Amino acid sequence: MTRSRFTPTQVGTAAPSTSSGQAPGCPAERSEAVAPCRDSRPLSSRAKLRRSPIAMIITILATSLSISCSRKAESARLPKPTAFGAAIVESSGGKQTAQTGSLLQQPVVVQVNDAQGNSVTGALVEFSAVPGVIFDPPNGLTDSSGQVTTNVSLGGIAGRYQIVASTFEKSHKKIDLKLEEIALSYQQTLGRQLNNQYCDRCHNPESTVERVSNYDNLEVKPHPFTAGDTLNKITDADLTAIISHGGPALNKSPLMPAWGNTLSKSDIEALISYIRAVSDPPSREAGPVYAKN
Predict the structure, then answer these.
(1) Burial state string for 120-141 with b = 16 or more CB within 10 A and e = fewer than 16
(2) What is the band of 58 on the pLDDT scale with cuts at 50, 70, 90?
(3) Whole-model pTM?
(4) Is the bond preceding residue 282 a cis peptide, omega within 30 degrees?
(5) CA 197, CA 182: separation in Å to the nearest integer?
(6) For the domain with range 186-290, which CATH number is right: 2.130.10.10, 1.10.760.10, 3.40.50.300, 1.10.3430.10?
């Protein structure tokens, strides 16, 4: 008994005939074997099948566009004010520092007042800034104390960010309040940590729950690091000398101790970078101000 040879062209077909004298597997036989495997579905069905990936892509894009538009429409909806003010003022939250891309430790709180200085309930307040700054929420109506609160996340580049809180007079004239928040680089954030650990107790007159200020106990008052009018006139080299060797290094108060054996060179550089970042008025090294046009 001989075994018939199996070739790929025989799949789904009858055994090839050799009555024509052609050898199995010759070109004529292969064409006959392949012919029955052609797609027998109607042309319209095959066209629909070919078009289906394109149709799926169009459907996905249309759905995404619809969702995006609905989100924009939702964000564009503003609460309807029931009252209008004559001024908007800061209650708290300005001039804070946070690492780039981070949430400010305290929320920003603003208040809308009327012409007599009384708080206004139900006035619309909107918050805005350059792209990258996030407000939560971006708008709201003033509460019974005339205030609106928002949490602010700063952008991803170090520098000063101007944020704007806006309300409207009854005549629909816009009233803006501009605040500044400071985004710290990695080096400046390290400097802030060193300041909190070694410097803030004497250089900051304000006490906190975590730290009691020693400022009032000092006969010679040290300059707060925000005192730009004074510190901006001192060079980095002189600040380095004072921090490293104490006040007497530049004929300053001996109450300023030497930190050269405690802080490394990079630590002192980070501390000076932080001082430059928070100085008020800003120093030339404070970095750019990012403001919405």
Answers:
(1) bebbbbbbebeeebbbeeebbb
(2) low
(3) 0.72
(4) no
(5) 20
(6) 1.10.760.10
